[in-house]
Specification:
The chain is α+β, with helices and mostly antiparallel strands. About 35% of the residues lie in helices and about 20% in strands. The chain has one domain: 3-Layer(aba) Sandwich (SMI1/KNR4-like), CATH 3.40.1580. The protein is built from five helices and seven strands. A seven-stranded antiparallel β-sheet has the order 1-2-3-4-5-6-7.
């Protein structure tokens, strides 16, 4: 199954990365009091987060716009009742979080119900998350190879 990077290579007009400076990202990760899924960290190292398709935002740790920034959106969703051991990284089609509590969700990427924050799906890898959420919704619409 193609990855988000392969899809972005084939259809660059659908993916707009925020960009990242490696030293700044490393400092941010070190200062963050939470663990982050390694697949998400790898994605951020390459892109800094970004927007894709027509309505999807992959929040970035260093994004300047509040609606694109992991920390700002995390705080906004904590105020709505999102558990504090979940790090929101995606908004749009669904809410996606990195579980940072090794006991509860064992460092997985989760898709949550936007109203109740109940877990609807979980994934071990960033590629599995992308394939079963965004790609499954948008691949046919945008002519991405099956």
């Amino acid at each position: 199954m193609p990855t988000i990077f392969e899809d972005a290579f084939l259809r660059p007009e659908l993916f707009h990365w925020f960009g990242v400076v490696e030293a700044e990202l490393e400092a941010w990760l070190t200062a963050l009091p939470l663990r982050v899924h390694p697949g998400l960290v790898s994605f951020w190292r390459r892109t800094g987060g970004g927007d894709c398709f027509e309505s999807e935002t992959l929040l970035g740790p260093l994004a300047s716009d509040e609606g694109d920034n992991v920390v700002k959106m995390r705080e906004a969703y904590w105020n709505k009742g999102l558990p504090r051991d979940l790090l929101l990284f995606h908004t749009g089609l669904c809410l996606s979080v990195s579980s940072v509590d090794m006991r509860r969700h064992r460092n997985r990427l989760l898709v949550l119900n936007p109203e109740s924050f109940e877990v609807e799906q979980w994934f071990h890898t960033f590629n599995a998350w992308y394939e079963n959420t965004l790609r499954s919704e948008y691949s046919e619409r945008y002519g991405l190879a099956p």
